[in-house]
Amino acid sequence: MSEISAPTKPGRWRQLAASPGGRAFLALLLVFLVGVLGNADGAFFKIGTHRDALRQASVYGILACGLTLVIISGGIDLSVGSVLALVAVGGAKMAIHWGWSGWLVVPAGLGIGAICGGLAGWITARLRVQPFIATLALMVLARGAAKYASGGMKISTAVKNEAGGYGYVDVPALFRAVDARILGGNLSMVTVIFLTCLALAWLVLAKHRWGRQLYAIGGNEEASRLSGVPVVWAKVGAYVASGIFAGVAGLCQAAQEQQGDPEAGVGYELTAIAMVVIGGTSLMGGRGGMGLTLLGVLTIGYLDKILSINAVPEAGRLMLTGVIIVVAVLTQRRKRS
Amino acid sequence: MKPNTASLLTLALLGCGTIFWNGCSDSTSSSTGGSAKSDPKERGFTIGMSQCNLGEPWRVQMNEDVRNAAAKRPNLKVVFKDAQNDTLKQRSHVEEFISSKVDLLLISPKEAQPLTEPVTKAMEAGIPVIVLDRALLGDKFTCFIGANNKKIGKAAGEWVVKSLGGHGNVVELMGLQTSTPGQDRHSGFLEGIAESEIKIIFSADMKWLEPDARKEMESALSRFDKIDLVYGHNDPGAHGAYLAAKAAGRTGIKFVGIDALPQEGVAYVNQGILDATLQYPTGGAEAIDAALKILKGESVPKEIVLGTRLFEKSNVARGGEELK
Q1: Mode of pairing for the β-strands spanning B197-205 and A181-182
Q2: What is the share, in percent, of chain A residues with pLDDT greater than 90?
Q3: CATH level 3 topology of B149-281+312-323
């Protein structure tokens, strides 16, 4: 094919456009170009803008890490936004109302996420309910549980006392630590958490046997089963991982809002799925990777930030985002040989 | 054998889930006890309260206000139903209240058009109706109680003019601009600052959501070095902006919000996070007052427009100050 042609400039571009990673990179470059052109009086060139864009994208990015594992195995997880809210409410309750230390809140929060993911994975893999339906049910169930646990109110530092008034407690140290900045205030801690999640998921997918099993299952589940892949366990594991990542995202969300909001994360699953797909991971399963997801997260995250610093009205934002997603996905489509 | 135990367990789990689920909605619908069909001999009054959506803290507060006001009166029972933001569900709730013959119907409708007819049927069945917050079409109800977002937006604008001395740079974080409250809080604010030299240098639709408000505020901060005040269309919006400014190490910015729920806006003013918040009253307590008058056969005005209260550092301990 054209890869063999002499490395002239157009040849190199074609080479770049031939791999999914290259195409996702081109989409990101396009968004950056939009940012340079619409730089909002130079705001786009300030380091703070980039720190904020990355901070804003991090919670979605953490969800996208788990979703990548599930999607590569040929599944889908619609429950992540609701699980995020449930863990945000639970985490806020433990950290603010009950005064638990971070060393307890984090494992407990991730445990809630793991249980939710395990439930979804088990219903999907063991009982063979379609993942769309199983995780849709869990999405509703977890949202209800979040509302129930919070009594419909945000769990904030204003705590109701017996007299019916409100007393105030400090923002827990865990929340302060997660919402902090490092490197002279130029990098948000949540971004570090996102990158850590990304690295862990990359290790699993690229280096571990379990990761290879997920690719195999996504490619052809029946063939994998026949060749001895523990399909059920590998799939349940992917949903558990997705639930745990949603738990991480929930704690990050609560820390940044300094409260647990039962309405948090509505619609986040769709943004996170869009990030995974724009990167080039196939919704049919079997193809994709964490590097691609990183590119997808950056593409949508930066697009959002650029529209925001330019104060583009909401209607325009939605239409532009829709157009860019379509363009990015179209460039991802490749002819099957 | 194995798959059987597995599926049984799942069924059991799902069953638990359903019971748990129903448990939640039951607890909201009968929290003041019993069904609507009470014994007419021990004559108390039963009020049916149809809430359109308990997903918003403000509406949870409205129910709370109704509940607290009703608890102070003997022989008054309120049955709550939550339509979970579903118009047709609310419609059937109204029909259920009619068939269970409540003495009075309190409704905070989700939308006007589809709920006007069911409410008319209640009136025809001889049940007086108090409409809260959002209006219905026509005049087939006993009494409407609501606040005026435009007035409150204007009051916010006037407070901003006063506290900035008539000039300054303002960031406006707007509620959903396809919703009437969002539009009114914006146009009212413009009216309030019309005569001054206050400039809105950045405005964005944060859709009532705190994370979005924080994101938009970060953009405003990276674009403008001098911001004097942030006007959020709700308190969570102003709070999100405060967190963004604090994280950026920017000081000297004032924050104003609207709604003044006890655990949100008022708490934020108490904690020194917001400089001011204006109450958007729920009307829950006023509704019970009006309901009792109606049930005793006294007359009430067709429309009761609620005032607002200003909460700021100097008066928050006293419970705010009423604005006329």
Answers
A1: unpaired
A2: 60
A3: Rossmann fold (3.40.50)
Please name each of the domains of chain A with its CATH number.
30-36+43-332 (1.10.3470)
Backbone angles phi, psi at A36, to 5 degrees: -65, -40
Quote the ipTM score. Answer: 0.78
Tell me chain A's radius of gyration from C-alpha atoms.
Answer: 21
Task: Measure B91 CA to nearest chain A CA, in Å.
Answer: 22
- Phi and psi for B233 in degrees, rounded to 5? -70, -15
**pLDDT tens by residue, B106-136:** 999 988 888 999 999 999 999 999 999 988 8
Report the gap between the CA of A111 and the closest CA in chain B (Å): 18
- Please judge whether A43 and B223 are an interchain contact, meaning their C-beta atoms are less than 8 angstroms apart: yes
| Nearest C-alpha in A relative to B268 | A158
8 A C-beta contact, residue A69 and residue A201: yes
Phi–psi pair at A115, nearest 5 degrees: -65, -45
Partner residue facing A158 (CB), from B13, B243, B263: B263
- Domain positions in chain B are 25-141, 149-281+312-323
Amino acid identity at B231: Y
Compute the half-sphere exposure of residue A110: CA atoms within 13 Å on the CB side of its CA: 12
Inter-chain residue contact B211 with A168, CB threshold 8 Å: no
Is A144 in Cβ contact with B205 (below 8 Å)?
A: no
> What is the pTM (predicted TM-score) of this model?
0.80
A160 contacts B263? CB cut-off 8 A: yes
pLDDT tens, B42-52?
A: 568 999 999 99
Nearest CB partner across the interface for A127, out of B6, B207, B266: B6
Cα dihedral value B199, B204, B207, B212, nearest 10: -120
pLDDT in tens, B164-223: 999 999 999 999 888 888 999 999 999 999 999 999 999 999 999 999 999 999 999 999
CATH code matching the domain that covers B25-141, chosen among 3.40.50.2300, 1.10.10.10, 2.40.110.10, 3.30.70.100: 3.40.50.2300
- Contact list, A157 vs chain B (CB under 8 Å): 267, 271
The token pair that represents B15 in the structure block: 């069953």
Alpha helices in A207-267 (DSSP H): 209-219, 221-226, 231-257
